[in-house]
Amino acid sequence: MVAIWLTVALVAVLGVVSVHNAFSYPAAGGYDAAEHISYAHTLVEHWRIPKRGQGDYYTPPGYYLLAGGAIKLGEALRLSSPEHLGQLLNGLLAVGTALLLIGIVRVLFPGRPWLRVLALGAFVMIPVALKTDAMFHPQPLEMFLATLAVVLVTRLIRDGRYPWWNALALGLTVGVAQLVRSAGLWVFAAVFLALAVTVVARPGVRRPAGKALAIVTVLGVLLPLPWYIYLGTTYENPVLGRRGAPPPAQRAPATRGAVSPELASLVVPLALAQSLSYYTSGGLPESFTHPYRGALPPRFLPVLYTETWGDYLGSWSWGAVGMPRPQMSPSVNRRLALQSLVGAVPTFLALAGCLSLLALGLIRARERAELLAVALMPAVALAAVFYYASHYPSPDGDTMKGMFLLPAIPCVAIGFGFAVDGIRARAPRLGFALIGLLLLCGVVSLAYGIA
After folding, report:
1. Which of 273, 292, 272 is nearest to 283 (CA)?
2. Which string of DSSP letters, residue by residue, matches 189-214?
3. Is 48 a domain residue?
4. Is the peptide bond before 226 cis (omega within 30 degrees of 0)?
5. Distances in Å between the alpha carbon of 151 and those of 142, 174, 235?
6. In the chain, N or C: fewer CB atoms in 10 Å?
7. Within a domain: residue 439?
8. CB burial class (10 A; 0-12, 13-18, 19+) of residue 451?
9. Distance CA 316, CA 25 (A)
């Protein structure tokens, strides 16, 4: 009973904070906010997709149709900043995602209510989710659709019946997700892999599971295909719209310690033109002492981590357009340093939990294949972010934002809950001490996520 009330309380807290942030955080302050707002206006006022050079022309129109409609509603209501309704849409999507997360845990772990509380608590406290949900940005809609896809595929695999209408709903979800952000492609990949492993590992349901996989694949390809054709015929890349970084031979000479162009082209073309330490460095001690742009050199893991738990790029607590204190100060630096410190233990536990779920899902695929979608989402997301950062390098780390991981954050939260609940069950004293520490971390992070 206590777990139920805590679950309700956490959802309520998320709802209150999300609505507050939608109207308190300046619409122009988010990631590429001006471009996203311009896209929405262009789409609903002129019914066309922006051309090259006009904002995020390479982004699918799904979110902007909804957000543009929200802006029109705000104008009809004579709001001083009608874009806030687009932000409110994202706040409501955050609450919807939390409810879907609860659904996933109930499917996978029906007899473990505290795992549900822990997973939901992790989702509520991670700053990258709170701050992105407050922005005028398509990623929260992508997160909602990704989580919905995980709910559908885990139920499909768990039940083992594979009715065509469930497969149809799953196929529509992964297809529509690709019409919101390019991240929908790796959501489709995670769902596809989970079903494919099930087909191989469970001979008894191979035929119905194979049919479900075929339906999901066809819809996941055909629904976004017109968009990919548009990008491929109009611009350079049929998925991302933009040409990637030039081949290693066309770049500036490699710095000391960099991988040779020949080896880079053999291993992962374009990906290792930077030095290997660029992708493996932890950025210590700056990741914990000065975790912001200008003080912490842009490296893959440090930027991804500090943007997930803090504000490396300055779009939330410092540097954001319209914020009352837009400059870095010693007090802001101390708060960012605290956030980096607070995120260390939850990150370690979440990684441990996700790896455990992946190992369990693969080793016991016949009995627990339904775990695979949750376990694969963070792994595929990290690979996708690595691909994007390496093919579209940015001198300030803009292409390594933690926001790109957002569709996988609910699954990361479930991995966190799995790890902590496992410790609590096996070592109650250690578990409760750990939960006390994590509760303190959660309060600190939640306070940081309030605009």
Report:
1. 292
2. HHHHHHHHHHHHH-GGGHHHHHHHHH
3. yes
4. no
5. 14, 12, 35
6. N
7. yes
8. buried
9. 9
| CA-closest candidate to residue 173, choices 216, 136, 115 | 216
Tokens (6 digits) for 294: 């200008």
Place of tokens 């440090």: 302
Decide: helix, strand or coil at residue 130.
Answer: helix
The CB density around residue 107, as the number of other CB atoms within 10 Å, is: 18
Q: Which of 430, 414, 315 is nearest to 371 (CA)?
A: 414
Paired strand residues for 275: 258
Q: Would 286 be classed as within a structural domain? A: no
Alpha carbon 269 to its chain centroid, in Å, reads 25
Q: How many domains does the chain have?
A: 1
Rounded Cα distance between 151 and 191, Å, is 10
Rounded to whole angstroms, the Cα distance separating 330 from 261 reads 42
Global pTM value = 0.92
Specify the residue for token string 């909804």: 66
**What span, in angstroms and rounded, lies between the C-alpha atoms of 102 and 394?**
37
In a domain, 45, yes or no: yes
Query: pLDDT 10s digit of each residue in the chain, 451 long?
Result: 899 999 999 999 999 999 999 999 999 999 999 999 999 999 999 999 998 877 788 999 999 999 999 999 999 999 999 999 999 999 999 999 999 999 999 999 998 999 999 999 999 999 999 999 999 999 999 999 999 999 999 999 999 989 999 999 999 999 999 999 999 999 999 999 999 999 999 999 999 999 999 999 999 999 999 999 999 998 888 887 776 655 444 444 444 344 444 433 434 444 445 778 889 899 999 999 999 998 999 999 999 999 999 999 999 988 877 766 557 889 999 999 999 999 999 999 999 999 999 999 999 999 999 999 999 999 999 999 999 988 888 888 888 999 999 999 999 999 999 999 999 999 999 999 999 999 999 999 999 999 9
How far is Cα 131 from Cα 18, in angstroms, rounded to an integer? Answer: 9
Host domain of residue 67: 2-243+301-448
Q: Which two tokens stand for residue 13?
A: 């807290």
